[in-house]
Amino acid sequence: MLSDREIVALLFARSEEAIAALEARFGRLCRRIAVNILGSEEDAEECASDTYLTVWDTVPPKEPDPLMPYVGRIARNFAMDRWRYNHAGRRWAGGDALLSEVEEIVSGREDAEERVMQGALAAAISAFLHEQKPDDRHLFVRRYWYGDEVAAIAAEMGIRAGSAAVRLHRIRERLREHLIKEGFTV
Amino acid sequence: MKSEAFMRAVGDIDDALILEAESYRRRGVPVWVRWAGAAAACLVCAAGILAAWPQMKNASDNAEMAAPEAVGDALYDRYYAADEECAQPESTAASASGKPAETAAPEALDTGAGHYVRERTFWFREGDAWRKTKQPYPDGLPAMREIVSDYLAAAGAEVRCTAARHETVGEKDEILPGGIIQHTVGVKTWYITLDGDVSREILMGLTNTVLDSAANSSLYQVHITMPGGTFGPTGAFE
User: Fold this and answer.
1) The complex's ipTM?
2) Which one of A26, B55, B115, B184 has the lowest number of neighbouring Cβ atoms within 10 Å?
């Protein structure tokens, strides 16, 4: 399996081997994130393919290092877009569950400048997470960035699913307080 | 702010956080600690088995030799009312001094059938384990008087009787056949007072009848007083 640098080098060289290398290196990650949000293997496969094409289109000029968060973020955004598209007609379990949980943090009101503020919000969330204990940080990121099931995360961490759910609830409460303190309208 | 906007913002968190979560490994217990724990548990088990082995062996030997036996009556002292003094075995002292016990023992002792509970608790030894069982109390004062009167009538003795029971608080050990030690807590003595003389044969038969009426005769003694003397646990007139 090629390293990040080697894959980026292939992309810069416009070698089509880069797509196969992306699939080999990040295919599983992309499908995992998309399935967690969409709940559909078929949709997840499409998201993964769209992700490789987007990486092909954006590298160069971008030169992401490390590559994994960059690829994963694109896959996640495609899955969110797809979820919104699917959600117009019917409900999907994965994304619904994630959004219903984060409604504890935000009010649901549309804010005119929220799009503009997305970068600042991400920075505030990052700052908050850096202040948390490693286990809590891991729990939050695995749940809300990767979209993994609480039970799966708990099993990996060696704790009970109920304990993980309670910890997540407390993290959300603390994050809400943190965002209000930082001046965000939640 | 909408939940979706929040989720999109979460998607833009630091790369370092994402990489950290992907490479997270649970801080498990070191392997050497697990092995040390397992070894310690094995040692404790082995030590426990070695310590218990002699008792287990004795228990299995005893189980082959004897059936479960009643070896004590742990609750006997509860049969007395709280404000009632538990009498001492005065009859023994009286007998030793040659003084008839008819005035000492029966009056000072428990003479009310109502003081007795209907059940008593026996501890049985089965192998190396102790088992607690409750058995119905087989006798009471009216019943004992009836038993004695019936026996005397059947023997042709025109003698009336009164009866009382005394329970000693002490403990005793007896070595039974097979080397089993029987530990007895409290000995019950039936004091039977006759208003006339009867023959030694009748007294012995009466004693055996009273003992047979008890659930476990090893816990009972019979002390019979009559004008001619007393007939005690040793089976001799005093």
Assistant:
1) 0.81
2) B55
